[in-house]
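Example 5.3 — Alkaline phosphatase
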Amino acid sequence: MKTSVLFISLFLSLIGAVNRLFSQEQVKIHSHNDYNQTIPFWNAYASGATSIEADIFLKDNNLYVSHDPQGITASRTLEDLYLKPLETALKMNFKKEQQLFFLIDIKTEAVPTLTKLVTVLSKYESITKNKNIKIIVSGNRPDAETYTKYPDFIFFDFQELGKTISKENWSKVAMVSVDYKKYSVWNGLGRLTHEDKNKISAVIAKAKETNKPFRFWGAPDTKSAWKAFFELGVDIINTDSPYNCVQYIQALPKRLITASNSSKVYKPTYKTDQKDQQVKNVILLIGDGNGLSQISSAVLANNGALSVTQLKSIGFIKTQSADDFTTDSAAAGTALATGQKTNNRAIGTDSLRQPIPNIMEVLQKRKYATGVITTDEITGATPAAFYAHTEERSNTEEIAKDLLKSKLNLFVGGGGKTFKNTDLNSKFKLLNSVKELETSNADTAGVFISEGRVPSVLEGRGELLADATKYSLEFLNKKKKPFFLMVEGAQIDSFGHVNNVGGIVSETIDFDTAITQALQFADKNEGTLVIITADHETSGFAIPQGNVKKHQIEGDFITTDHTATMVPIFSYGPHSQDFQGVYENNEVFAKILSLLK
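Solution (predicted structure tokens):
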């Protein structure tokens, strides 16, 4: 007994469901034909399902659990598969406050089978007298007008919606179930047709009038179906995948978001776009973790358009690092900044750990002004790739020293506390806000937008990235020489790592406001090339559903890490067409330098 109890405890812990309870007001997840699960009862119970179904047959005065008579075996009795395990769970106080529907579907003759069921159940008072457990008889049932003849612990599944029975017998009805296929042929892929949705909505409304929990049986069993039934108000969702369904429904409120910010779409003039004119200035905007789905989510949440989607020159870049199929930000940033693929975690060094010049250093020798903006700490992997050289991205002190040694004209980012005991102020004129860049005539300037981690848009950062881009461009342009500015929207990646849909959408929309500033500057200053890309994609983000009019996005994820999927690259201005196509991320470096004389 001790061994079995230990197994059960470990099983529930591994499932991670002991403390994930549905409240009474939430939808119930019904484990349909639960006996077909690899581990009947325990799998559904530990997963958080609050309704469990078992089909029973009366044979030789025993109750067996099976889908058909041919599947009956001596070891699969109702007691062994369900009643004893449930009794054990109650003794161990597993989910003792959770409501549970135990639906028993009678497959043999109703009255004798139910009579035997009552006899068997009477041995389990911990179940029959538990106020949180309802034993519900379905399938072959006695006449509805005889329901009150059965013990108080027996309830019934009513399947004749619209039929009237006496008030006393109606009190024995615990739920209402109907055959889904009578109302729709939808298979759970895509969406319900408008006609079928009206039929489904009508039967749900009729069922709601009974004030009993409502269930469709024979319904499609997909994520799209679960979501549709959830939103339409079905009280009990039928599924053969209780764990997946519970996880999906529980996470849905967090994955279904309404955009909290917006980006005013800028329509470029295209005056110099794709023209073979001399490139003078380059603005490289990097959305960290910003894959195609992240961009799509922001587009759809922003009335179907962004400033970046107005661009005509589009390509894709492959992001693999020198030593891994899936890159990190350090290796990807280094590839973009130096033109060489390197190992993950390396910044500004090659795969042999030797320093390699970045594009800022190359252009500084050509008398270019240079700057870096990020919504990360300034020592973060992506911004550091444009001024630092270290084989390990976590060497923050070494990266900070490289910033002091760099010849950057400008930096904007977080992490001011890292430089408290340095002479950074002798290297850069430290300003109190990005707005001060507008009037500053300093040769070099820096703005710390936070002492540590930079707040997100959801935390009230506002339009700081757009303002930083605008004023930094003005600051560099005043130098009357060509410049290269790197702008990073860092926190798309941060929210991808924690699977936060609202964070991804808000940061991607915010990144587009910075893109708008870059495009507007390019239209006012001929010879400016704007390039927008990502270092990699984060989280395997997907957007299965949403509502453009309501600015709603439903997101989903396959990981909390980076993925190896290609990322888009957009460009605008002279020679923007040179960035079309599909190529490696380190080729961006050479493409840029080939255009700068």
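Remark. The radius of gyration is 31 Å.
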